[in-house]
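Minimal example, chain plus magnesium ion.
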Amino acid sequence: MIKLILLDIDGTMIHAKGAGGLAFGRAFGSMFNLPDGAKGLRFAGRTDLSLLHEFMGMHGILSSRALERDFFALYAHWLAEMLPQFEGNVFPGVRDLMASCRDHPEGPELGLLTGNTRLGAEIKLRHFDLWEDFLIGAYGDEDPSRPVLAGLAARRGQEHLRTPLQPDEILVIGDTPSDVACAQSIGATSLAVATGGFSIEALEQSGATRVVDSLEGLGLETLLSL
Ligand SMILES: [Mg+2]
């Protein structure tokens, strides 16, 4: 029985229609005077810290915690500015899933497992009125590696629930093979949803416990017994 559900954000819960990538590019451009510096970066399934490290490596810039902090603050500024200018959307079934978790008597805890920075995640989810249900999470400015974030999110979930969980009592929901791989790295159950650009076939090949084309109509009981 699933007791902790860890959700990815982009491509899984919401489609920000490119606002995040553009805000990243704007922050790169203004901080390093490299207006096209983000060109060629692949964003899906990545952590923001790994993207920043890749970008800095491409341009021979040495990373430091202070520089990362300054960059992510600038990115958050641009993200908040750009998000309302794009007609993003919440994917079908997401709000229903969260509502049924809230209403369930043994309600599974909801957490975030995302490559977004903590502040970036909050800005995006507040924009769509989805932030308040998440009491724990692991974020893409804490570590560049998604499997490390998976371990952090699982530990925080168990601390919050005040109970140890079996790995397969944790469900990771995401839209990329990277989400599936990070679930597998902690032995968690995984649900891959093909709303983010990866095909059903690609997600099946990644070894997800279950693959669906949308979260719409998925009953919570089905998810809890995966
Ligand atoms: Mg995603």
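The two ends are 7 Å apart (CA to CA). Residues 65-82 form the longest helix (18 residues).
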